[in-house]
Amino acid sequence: EAGVAQSPRYKIIEKRQSVAFWCNPISGHATLYWYQQILGQGPKLLIQFQNNGVVDDSQLPKDRFSAERLKGVDSTLKIQPAKLEDSAVYLCASSLSTSGRNEQFFGPGTRLTVL
Amino acid sequence: GNSVTQMEGPVTLSEEAFLTINCTYTATGYPSLFWYVQYPGEGLQLLLKATKADDKGSNKGFEATYRKETTSFHLEKGSVQVSDSAVYFCALSEGGYSTLTFGKGTMLLVSP
User: Fold this and answer.
1) What pLDDT band is residue B112 in, cutting at 50, 70 and 90?
2) What is the distance between the alpha carbons of residues A107 and A82, in angstroms, rounded to a whole number?
3) Tell me: the pLDDT tens digits for B37-63?
4) A96: distance to nearest CA of chain B, Å?
5) Which end of chain A, N or C, is more open, meaning fewer C-beta atoms within 10 Å of its C-beta?
6) Cβ of A115: how many Cβ atoms within 10 Å?
7) Using an 8 Å Cβ cutoff, are A5 and A107 in contact?
8) pLDDT tens-digit readout, B65-86
9) Rounded Cα–Cα distance for residues B76 and B91 (Å)
10) Do the Cβ atoms of B6 and B90 come closer than 8 Å?
11) Among B41, B42, B99, whose Cβ lies nearest the Cβ of A56?
12) Chain B residues within an 8 Å CB radius of A41
């Protein structure tokens, strides 16, 4: 079974530029998550989708971050414009459903460096 | 709100030593508790979990017991290997929903 795919693996941009990350979850997984992991900290949830609907985006900085999952499968996370403090690893995860008993499977992450 | 506190690392051990990584949590209800592991260059993997008080999760020689009275979920292994070197994250989810709250992670370094 293929795991969660993310691209690109690494990205370096200048502040005020825009950037987009892509995630393809495990086939059949209805729930998709985007996390931000700043160096030395644990992952922090940015947004959670159930199929193509948003379940929780309370910690997403909506003035600069946006995410979509139009067909309920793959997803894109965008930052526009980027700030220095956005330097982090962006993790995508998926699970069968929103039940807490379903394991979340994580992708390898995209490491973003903002200069 | 919910929170997870882990002991700070790095934890440095020799091969075959006993490992304990402390984890305590704050939650309003009855959370499920998890340990995730992140090997260098890889994504997070679920190591073990426990969904109710006194449950013991175990996998690959690692164990953790859900202690409601002390709000703890300490990770233990009797004999670590070099291949166990990684960052370990304690996490919780609450209310039957899958949203995870993570601790800051503890790096484990095992030398031969």
Assistant:
1) very high
2) 22
3) 999 888 899 999 998 899 999 999 999
4) 10
5) N
6) 10
7) yes
8) 999 999 999 999 999 999 999 9
9) 16
10) yes
11) B99
12) 104-105
